[in-house]
Amino acid sequence: MEKPYCLTMRGIVKNENDEILILKRHPKSKTDPCKWELPGGKIEKGEYFDEALIREIKEETNLDVKVGDFCEALQNDYSHKRTVQLIMYAKDITGEVKISDEHYDWMWASLDRIKTLKITSSFEKIIKKRNNKL
Length: 134
Description:
Elements: E1 5-12, E2 20-25, E3 36-37, E4 40-42, H1 49-61, E5 64-77, E6 82-94, E7 103-109, H2 111-114, H3 121-129
Parallel strand pairs: 1-6
Antiparallel strand pairs: 1-4, 2-3, 2-7, 5-6
């Protein structure tokens, strides 16, 4: 049986120190448990990409954002599905970070710090494709 495709949005949310907001996946997550990732998630049927990213960031971090420029796109193959991820920059960020039950930790981190952590394979791919620049 062929694996279904999912479309996912991820956001690069930066603070005033140019640090990136990352979230640590729950230990019971089907994919990449206990690894750090960018906030985001699946697009719901009939939803525009920008609406999905705004919704997912709000659900996962309690932050309000607007969608900025396109960053990158990539495909990941898992045992049960394939995902296409669109990574966008977030802008006009307001609110205080408060994470959902989907994750169990968060931090603002420099790219150098992120590269020392256990991050998801898709996050690694993004960093490599962007030549270590986000």
